Amino acid sequence: MDLAVKFFLPLLLLGLVAVTFSQDDGYGQCERTVMEWKSAALDVDVKEDKHKLQELLFFLHVPRTGGRSYFHCFLKKLYPNALECPHSYDKLRFDPRKPNCRLLVTHDDYSMMTKLPRKKTSVVTILRNPTDRVFSTYEFSIEVAARFLIYPNLTSAVRMASRIRKKTNSVSTLDIWPWKYLVPWMREDLFSRRDVRKFKEHNVTKSSDSYNVEDMAMPLHKYIKDPVAQDIIHNGATFQVAGLTNNSCHAESHEVRHCVHKYRSLGTHVLEVARKRLDDMLYVGLTEDHKESATMFGNVVGSQVISQLMEKSDKEPAVNSKQGQNLHILKSLPSSIHLNRTTENMNIEGTSGNANVKNENVSKKNSLLLFFSAFLKCDDYAEIDDGGQADASV
Ligand SMILES: *[C@@H]1O[C@H](CO)[C@@H](O)[C@H](O)[C@H]1NC(C)=O
Ligand SMILES: *[C@@H]1O[C@H](CO)[C@@H](O)[C@H](O)[C@H]1NC(C)=O
Ligand SMILES: *[C@@H]1O[C@H](CO)[C@@H](O)[C@H](O)[C@H]1NC(C)=O
Ligand SMILES: *[C@@H]1O[C@H](CO)[C@@H](O)[C@H](O)[C@H]1NC(C)=O
Ligand SMILES: *[C@@H]1O[C@H](CO)[C@@H](O)[C@H](O)[C@H]1NC(C)=O
Which residues pair with 124 in a beta bridge? Predict the structure, then answer.
């Protein structure tokens, strides 16, 4: 967990060092706003056992961390569709109308917790080195926006895209935060650069630096300094865990975020809240250590999900074929995993080899590993369709 937090530090601290602020009224007001938010954020009951999977699993999906593979390759195969929490029109936005759902995977930030039964909710997330996350966000913005270049001009691209969406009723990347802001912005830019290229004809400068091909796309350094990127991408994971993103469902969050952007030193409070939240999560993975993180996900989250679902299916036998279909995955696992419902002896993060972990059932662990080696090979996440219609829950 500490390792995860390390990834947060450099960005916020960098901001701190570089900034001098004036002690004007604005600062005083902002400091009060941030402190009030912080004390409310830290003042929540701690769960009796944060290592125990509660009824609802909230996957706080930070964009560009690879969370999509956890969802498609694993969680979606375990949880019957009926237990998945519904999303509203823009998909990765939670729709709280189904109170008994068990799995919620969204780009919504932590502010969503106020709409969920807090004590009955376990939160998990995956973090990534912020620099890589930013590179990846930039690349994905261009990738999705560039799919529109098949159209002759921006007007026709926008019109065609919305026509296709209406017709197929599918969810587009453009419906999902943060892409619903980042992609149109980049799309407009790509088209205007293409128009300029048309005039220049063959006089296009060649660059070997793919982050700086100014004739074709907004260079990375311009992208990252733009106010849109500053609001949405800078310290994005920290803000998401703190519940302070541009997408937050609380009005006060936006005030806090604006204050922190204005007076960088106030960022330490945000960091403090984010660290506490991470500490209280059931699981935090790291994109960089995919194999280890996925294995740990299996040990910490996966095995508890399986136990929970098996227990549920005993109480209320599967009535529809979908649920049966999902459970067949469990049944195809070596028997030790699903016949034995003892979860107390799980190999919780950091306690492996600990004498407290009595009775660890080795064959159970092996079958989980087996399952996860299948997960590691799963390449569902590579699936991309074109025309801006990709389900970009990456
Ligand atoms: C954009 O392209 C469409 C389709 O070719 C064309 O009808 C329209 O006039 C173009 N609009 C502009 C502003 O160039
Ligand atoms: C081509 O680009 C270079 C550098 O931008 C410029 O000096 C030159 O005049 C341009 N040539 C033409 C034909 O536009
Ligand atoms: C979020 O950011 C986008 C892009 O900068 C902006 O258009 C939008 O209004 C912002 N939303 C909020 C609630 O600040
Ligand atoms: C693990 O569980 C299986 C099946 O319930 C059982 O056969 C095996 O003996 C158990 N192993 C240990 C170490 O408890
Ligand atoms: C599960 O395993 C425990 C210990 O490993 C054993 O005591 C228990 O009987 C097993 N339960 C089932 C249903 O196999």
Answer: 59, 283
